[in-house]
Design a protein that fits this description.
TIM Barrel, 7-stranded parallel beta sheet, 10 helices, 39% helix, lyase, decarboxylase, EC 4.1.1.23, orotidine-5'-phosphate decarboxylase activity, orotate phosphoribosyltransferase activity
Length: 276
Amino acid sequence: MAATQPTPYKLTYAQRAEKLSNPTAKLIFETCERKKSNLAVSVDVTKAADLIAIIEAVGPYTHVDILEDWDPALIERLQHLSAKHDFVYFEDRKFADIGNTVALQYSSGVHKIASWSHVTNAHVVPGPSIIQGLSSVGRPLGRGLLLLAEMSTKGSLAVGSYTEEAVRMARKNQDFVIGFIAQRRMEGVGASADEDVSQEDFMILSPGIGLESKGDAMGQQYRTPREAIVNTGSDIIIVGRGIYGTDLSAVDSIARKAERYMSEGWSAYVERLQSV
């Protein structure tokens, strides 16, 4: 009798990295393993100085398209910080337009996202053309794309057939689509009865992570790192306000909170491995 292979997400990050072909997907898991961290910090600030201060404090994945004082010289600074602190950039752009338009948005304009951001993401409302457009820019650069399969807000419409179609699109574009923004594992979702998806390995990044609060006034719903990583199989937890709050000058406090989330996330990952 042949031994069954373990579900990929129950392997270590390093083991999963060895099996992946997309350069960015490999880099993310190798970085997680090297730093013993599965924390992504979502930095929603409007000033470049605040962005740089938080990056220096926590070395996160980050996004910058809401900055009011973007300067092209900032790209070089961001690239320097990525190398200095050994982290990967995730530009949470949430593209949602036709292929030609998103290709221009991704490659050009003031932000030139593809030139510095390792990962970006997109809604699948426009259909497969959005992946084709972004891939035409990002794939030659070795970048990776996440699809928004689910969202953490109350009443989200990204459920059911929408989620299933997002996964089907990803399966057809595994050289560029590396995973999903989602609240659970996507293996088997939307697959036909004759498809063998037992060894597919899409990474899951989950927003809506909090240790103190269960939600906010705008419909955000929070889960603990353990709930996300152990109970529902997330690979990377995305934390924003739970780390930097409202006082962006409190650098020491921001760093301590980031360290706490990093520790909680890594402990949950180790627990998941031990449960195999």
